[in-house]
Amino acid sequence: MILWIVLGAAFCAIAFAAHLTSIVTVIARVRSRRDGGMAAEAVSILRPVCGIDNFVEETLRSTFLLDHPRYEIIFCVADRDDPAIPIVQKLIEEHPAIDARLLIGNTRLNANPKLNNLVKGWHASRHDWVLMVDSNVLMPRDYVARMFQAWRADTGLVCSPPLGCAPANLWAELECAFLNSYQARWQCFADSIGLGFAQGKSMLWRRDLLDAAGGIAALARELAEDAAATKIVRGLGLRVRLVGRPFAQPLGYRSLAAVWHRQIRWARLRRITFKWYFLPEIFSGACAPFVVAAATAAAAGWPVAGSVLPFLVAWYAAEALLAFLAGWPLSPRVIATWMLRDALLPLLWVAAWAGNEFEWRGNAMTVAAPGLGELAARQRM
What is the mean pLDDT of the chain? Predict the structure, then answer.
């Protein structure tokens, strides 16, 4: 019994230490200000568009308001009947001084609809630096400069995880709980210790590096283009780096089903592409330490509530400090959604192993689809 008590206490101590270390590290990142040295480089910005997202006009308009001196915008749409086309055309007409084009068409590399949509934009882009930015990312005026600020001599790709903002209901706040102080925190921490992973929301490529790996078709080696990008960059002996302060994605209204299905998609993709990193996710969040702390207190004959409650208060107080200092959404209801998120994390982990299928923008897909690499290889022949 004593051994189990010692092991339980050690697990809780290690879990809290990891939690606190990640928070302190990310606070240092988001509070720092770094100057970049490539602000004048010409950039091609590719924005894949599909359907009408919440705030789509605002996020696409932000592309025209950047303070970068030299850039072109290429909007990529797969279907000529896409309802977002009139919005894109209107924005282009409203900003005649900006070099912007709309390309329509689709080149199938694999089952990833976004990657297939981006192919034409990659080939049509004119500059040596290429930004791939999802249509639901809100680009601040200094977006390009902040991406360049993260570039170093050993860098092969700069990315940014999305930060949820403007939640309009409880389930959108739950999505913020997943995106911000959980996923973005751990992604930024991983980057800080040299294990950066690509995030498809925002990716800054130097064209010659991706071309050396086989061009944009090389991103079809994995179902998720960001997973393929991570492996390509590491294969070149370079690092994926993340921006110091990630960029916002306004959410609006969300349904619980939409939030859950999106998390299932991402979890199943992580499971299939980076299995050994995905395995310990079962221990992430407060759920596992909370259960172990309660069991340890009961086994030791200590008051369970009196032992566990201070642990939970300290756990979420640290997360609240991160949100406050980073300027992320914070309120009593936000903290409640953190608790709900942590309760869902073990279920999400189990669900990731329980199946291979998911839906992405109306496309039924599976992480077990064969021949992804073969499709990419045929494109390069």
Answer: 92
CATH fold for domain 37-258: Spore Coat Polysaccharide Biosynthesis Protein SpsA; Chain A (3.90.550)
Spatial distance between the Cα atoms of 118 and 49, rounded to a whole number of angstroms: 9
18: helix, strand or coil: helix
Is 356:269 a contact under the CB 8 Å cutoff?
no
Contact 179, 162 (CB under 8 A): yes
pLDDT tens for each residue of 59-107: 999 999 999 999 999 999 999 999 999 999 999 999 999 999 999 999 9
Question: In the structure encoding, which two tokens stand for residue 148, read together?
Answer: 């360049």
pLDDT at 329 over 50: yes
CA-nearest of 30, 15, 338 to 192 is 30
Report domain extents, the chain: 37-258
Angle at alpha carbon of residue 101, lines to 98 and 104, rounded to 5°: 165
Burial class for 153, CB neighbours closer than 10 Å (0-12, 13-18, 19+)? exposed
